[in-house]
Each structure stands twice: as C-alpha cells, then as structure tokens.
Design goal:
alpha+beta, BirA Bifunctional Protein, domain 2, 9-stranded mixed beta sheet, 4-stranded antiparallel beta sheet, about 40% helix, globular
Length: about 600
C-alpha cells in the first residue's frame, strides 16, 4: 500500500460518512463544558445527553474528528506509541441504525479500495461472549461472516474485553465488537489471537452497541428506549499500522517537528539511542500544548487543574530540550511546525497563533528562572546518592518551595539516574507548609486570592485582584447597579469572578465591559488605601458585600473615579501596572449567578 497520511485519513473519513447521510459535528473543546472530567478524553463524551434520549440538532446520524487529551499515560510518553493528545475518529447512530449497518459500513470503509483498501485477510474481529445478564452476541458474529471475515478470524471474548461502559458500572453500556489489524509479525504461539500482547494484532476500531443502562450501583441492567452505535478509531494508530511504521512518531504530523529538533540539537532521532525519548516527549507535549492554548476555551499555564497539566507539559518538554542541548526557548519552533501543519484543518489557529507562541515563550522563561538554580541544588542533593537510593521528601520539598522546582521534574530527573523520590514525605511537608500559611495571615492573601510563592507571583496576584475591582465596577455600569459580587478566585494566571446577573451576557456587553476596564488601565489611575469604620465606608460610597465578616474598622481601596470597595488587599499601586484585560469566558455559575474568567496580558 502507498503511504497514507493523517490528513488523507481525515478527508476519507469525512467523505465516507457524508456518503452515508451523516452530519459532521464540529470537534468539541478539550475542556468539557460541565467540568465532569479534566479534559475531553473521547469523542462520545459531549454526546452523552443525546445518546440518553435528547434529540440532537443535527439529526440521528453523526460523525466527527475529535481532539482528545488523556493524562493517565503521561509518564509513559517517550516510547514508540504513547501520546497525551490524539485524534479520535467517531461516528454515531443516535437511535437510528444498529448492528447491521454499523458492521457492514465498517467493513466497507476498511476494505474497499476507494477508502482504506485493507485486504480482509489482514483483519480479525472480537465480539461479546455473553454472561448471565446479556446473551452471546451471535448477531455481530453472523454479520461479520456475511461481510467476508473468515470464521477463524472471529473471536468471542468476555466482558472485560468486549463490553463498554461509561465507568464505575453505572450509566450507558453495551457489548462491542473490536476490529484488529495483522501487522505481519510472526504468531507468538499456535493460540495467538487478538488477546495477545505480542504485537501481531493491533486494535484499530471499536463499535459499541449502546443499548443498555444501569441506573445506580447494584441496580439491574435495563434496556435503553433507543439503540445507539458509538464507534471510535484512533487516527495516529491507524496511520501508523497502515504504513507499517514501528512507531506513531513516524506519522507525517511529527516529521517536521523532528527535523526541527534534529537541526537545533545536531542529533539524529533514533528510538534506540539515549536521546530518542526526549525527541518523543517534546513532540508529544508541544502538540498537546498547542491544542490546549489554541482551544476555543484556551487554557493557560497555572498551578491548578487543566493549567497545571499544561504547565507540566511545557516544562517537561523544556527539560527534554535541555537534555538535547537545545535552548528551551526554541521549543516554540516546534509549536510553529504544528500550527503550520494543522492550520488548514483547524482554521482557528490563524487567530490564536500569536497567543499560543507567546504563552509558551512566557512559560519557558518562567521555568528557566526556576530551573537554573534548581538544577544546581538537585545535583547537590543527589551527589551522595547512588542508583536504587531515594531523595528524601524534605529535600524534594525544598527544591519545590525554595527553588520553584516542580515535584514531577525532580521525579523525572531522578528516574534518569535510577533514583527514587519519597513522594509521601514531600506531600507531608507540603501539607505542613499549607497549614503554616493558613495560620500566618501575612503569608497568604485572603478573599479568594491564591497563595504566592515568589515576588513575581505576588505582583501578578496584586494586578489581577485590582482587575477584579475594575471588572466589578464595569459590570455595574454596563448591566446595572443590581450587579453584586458572589465570589472570586484568583491565581497568578487568571481571575474568576462570580456575580449576580439575570441573563447570559451578549457579546456587545462583554466587549463594553472589557473596554471600560482597559480604559481605566490606560488612564493609569492611582490606587489608594484608607482605613475607616463600616459606616464611614458606606457613607463614602464604598461597596461592601460581606458586612458580617468585617470588624470595627475596614480597609477601603479606591481606584480613581472608577471603583471604591471594602477589601483586605493586596493591590497594585496604579492601574497602569495591570496590562491588557481580556475576558476569556462568560458562563453560568448557578441560578441567577454568572461567572467571568479573565486574564491580564
């Protein structure tokens, strides 16, 4: 077979399902709207309401090309097949066709020369063997035979292999039929089949027949009011096996990034040498970072949640660049390679390119400051250790607390030396540190503002906290004085502000609020602080929303003629220190309460 690229596979996927009267769903954000999980890990995730019975606006036959991100294998990235970010090709019947069409079309797509043209002898399938609750899936086996799959290439496997469920044994579920590709490797034994991990058989597609539901733990399995089909094919894997590659990192999308790294490092990419793992980690992690930063709901590096994962990806890639002898700042060249490669299929990269590259540069710079001194201390800590020893939790925490060295980097670098890390000891020290911070009001910012670990972080927190005051005042001016704060959460990377509002803000209202905040910033207003009684504060026009928390005296912060609020700080000294204010998202927080997420650039 001639070489087939990921882009070609995407085009074939679209063309095939459009020919079967399916509608394309635009790939969902990597950040789930309902916050049920950290990232979108599968194409079906956003479709659960429709698979449960809610009508989909595009109809009953659907397909997509969904970017996904999974972090459970992040420590395995560096071998020839593991990835954090990948593409899942999926198609669905939402209460429309069922097993016959799903299996027949799967066979057609895989074997017809117009599509993938795989010889049927290269395919094997597995089906559900049945148990005490759901019978053996003879229907699927019969349909595969009718298509042309020989009987000795059809295998019945138990529930652990051929049953799908959302997780935890509760919710939508059903039997599946999995399709495997023969790589041509010799059989490991006379009993070699798709259950072996010898590498001869590789799973390339999974068709789930979602016809059952379990309401709660211990409840009996029941039939859904509609029968669904949910399929998934990993783009990177199918491209790899069809081309006969020994690794997914041979796929076309990684060719230019690897060449860039070879040119920058003067080293050749080879899985078998000491540098192969670093090449793979950089290529994987920077691709994931590009898609997180370029997402419709962009994530920025931080110390919590999705932002922490992004920070870890960029910093691991930066550390691997260092191992290759590359200036960490040059990993933006790899990011540019991905933007260039994907911009044809993902048009939003045209608008987000500068943002993506700037954010990666800034995170690399932050990390560079930490790593220079941290590496010296790390080397001192391990100087007396040998392979098999363990870095003490106290030393690991000191690397983190004093030198800004993240635990995962300490673990990665120690692993390279055959040394372990006392993670439990680190966590104990970290918990002790948090308690001391809570006990010392001078060491922690109050009122929804995160703890700062450096002067740089303190400056960012002060600026973002001041920005929440300008945001509050601007919301009241645009929406009305009924707007009241209902909570805030501020980290060094972003602010989150909850407020009373009876409607979803329009784009015009959001733009008006942004403009008012930025106008106040451009005017470089002084930020002054005065101490007074609660009554004096109210009489002066200051806004105070949490009277029951105040003592006899309160602190009032005034920002020119724009804002006056009771607050316990911290703040910048002038609004001109804040930079450019940008609202990333406006969404519902709870009934009658909206939430804004924003950054300062």
């Amino acid at each position: 077979m001639a070489k087939i690229t990921g882009k070609t596979l995407m085009r074939k996927w679209r063309s095939f399902w459009l020919s079967k009267d399916h509608k394309e769903i635009k790939g969902a954000s990597l950040i789930p709207a309902d916050n049920s999980v950290l990232f979108t890990t599968a194409g079906m995730q956003p479709l659960i309401p429709y698979l449960s019975g809610k009508p989909h606006p595009l109809g009953r036959r659907l397909f997509d090309i969904q970017p996904c991100l999974r972090t459970n294998d992040i420590d395995e990235v560096g071998d020839n097949r593991h990835h954090t970010m990948f593409f899942m090709l999926g198609n669905w019947s939402v209460g429309d066709y069922f097993k016959r069409e799903a299996i027949t079309w799967s066979y057609e797509y895989l074997t017809d020369p117009k599509w993938l043209g795989i010889p049927k002898e290269k395919l094997a399938v597995t089906v559900f063997a049945g148990d005490e609750t759901v019978p053996r899936d003879e229907t699927s086996a019969k349909l595969w035979k009718e298509c042309g799959i020989p009987e000795n290439h059809i295998f019945f496997f138990p529930k652990k292999d051929n049953w799908w469920e959302i997780g935890g044994g509760v919710g939508l579920c059903g039997p599946d039929t999995e399709i495997f590709y023969d790589t041509g490797k010799p059989a490991c034994s006379e009993h070699c089949d798709p259950s072996c991990d010898c590498g001869k058989w590789v799973e390339i597609w999974n068709n789930v027949f979602m016809e059952f539901n379990v309401e709660k733990v211990g409840a009996p399995i029941t039939r859904l009011p509609q029968k669904n089909v949910d399929t998934g094919m990993g783009l990177e894997r199918i491209e790899c096996v069809l081309n006969g590659y020994d690794s997914t990192f041979r796929n076309e999308c990684f060719e230019q990034p690897i060449k860039t790294l070879e040119n920058l490092s003067g080293k050749q990419f080879d899985f078998n040498n000491e540098f192969g793992k670093s090449f793979c980690i950089i290529c994987d992690h920077i691709r994931a970072a590009v898609f997180l930063l370029g997402d419709v709901q962009p994530t920025t590096p931080s110390n919590v949640g999705q932002g922490y994962v992004l920070r870890r990806l960029i910093r691991r890639a930066t550390n691997c660049a260092r191992k290759l002898g590359i200036d960490g700042k040059r990993i933006v060249d790899v990011a540019k390679d991905y933007i260039d490669y994907y911009r044809e299929d993902f048009e939003h990269f045209e608008k987000t390119e500068n943002f993506i590259l700037d954010e990666i540069k800034k995170e690399v710079e932050r990390f560079s400051h930490a790593i220079e001194s941290g590496i010296k201390e790390f080397n001192r800590v391990v100087s007396g250790l040998k392979a098999g020893d363990c870095i003490d939790g106290k030393d690991a925490f000191r690397l983190f607390d004093t030198f800004g060295f993240p635990l995962d980097l300490t673990v990665d670098m120690a692993k390279d030396l055959g040394i372990g890390v006392d993670k439990a000891g680190f966590e104990a020290r970290f918990a002790e540190h948090q308690q001391m911070s809570r006990d010392n009001s001078g060491a922690m910012f109050k009122g929804g503002v995160a703890e700062a670990h450096s002067e740089e972080e303190q400056a960012k927190l002060r600026a973002l906290h001041s920005a929440t005051h300008l945001l509050h005042a601007s919301l009241r001016k645009v929406l009305g004085n009924y707007v009241e704060q209902r909570g805030s959460n501020i980290t060094p990377e972003r602010l989150r502000f909850d407020f009373v509002c009876d409607h979803k803000m329009t784009p015009e209202e959001i733009k008006a609020v942004e403009d008012l905040v930025n106008d106040a910033i451009k005017r470089d207003l002084p930020i002054t602080c005065e101490e007074m009684t609660v009554d004096e504060a109210k009489n002066s026009g200051a806004i105070g929303l949490f009277d029951d928390k105040y003592g006899d005296k309160v602190t009032v912060y005034t920002m020119g003629d724009v804002s006056k609020e009771i607050c316990c700080g911290p703040h910048a000294s002038h609004t001109g220190e804040l930079g450019e204010f940008k609202i990333l998202k406006e969404e519902s927080s709870s009934s009658g309460v909206r939430r804004i997420k924003a950054i300062l650039k």
